[in-house]
Amino acid sequence: MAYQVITNCPVCSEVLKITKLQCTHCHTTIENEFELSKFATLGQEQLFFIEIFLKSRGNIKEVEKELGVSYPTVRGKLNEIVSALGFAEKKSDVDDKKVIDMLEKGEISPDEALKIIKRN
Q: Is the Cβ–Cβ distance between 64 and 71 less than 8 Å?
């Protein structure tokens, strides 16, 4: 049974390094210092969200339907993951005009529009 790789030391909480890889078939072992992907530090829920986001080809409306959540929730989860991956968050990549357009098209409710504008 394989376990998920832990990324932080259970004793001191510092980042762990992978130092050994082994083939399960022929038992070849390679020892060195290997870096984990940024994605290895994400939680299961965040990885699941990324899977849905990619499956939906980045279409936020599709992500909303798949997860049964609102636009602000999808945006919030996406911003959380962007931040967790160490990327600087943009001040506002959805300007007020886009929010108003979405509201006029019926894509979001007035309450959702207010939440988005307040966050930006």
A: yes
Q: What is the pTM of this model?
A: 0.58
Tens-binned pLDDT, residue by residue, of the chain (120 aa)? 777 788 888 999 988 888 999 999 999 999 999 887 888 888 889 999 999 999 999 999 999 999 998 888 888 889 889 988 888 655 555 577 788 778 888 888 888 888 887 776
Contacts 24+ apart (CB under 8 A), 61-68: 61/107
Number of Cβ atoms within 10 Å of the Cβ of 11: 6
Q: In angstroms, how far is CA 51 from the centroid of its own chain?
A: 9
DSSP string computed for the chain: ---PPP-B-TTT-PBP-EEEEE-TTT--EEEEEEPPPGGGGS-HHHHHHHHHHHHTTT-HHHHHHHHT--HHHHHHHHHHHHHHTTPPPPS-SS-HHHHHHHHHTTSS-HHHHHHHHHH-
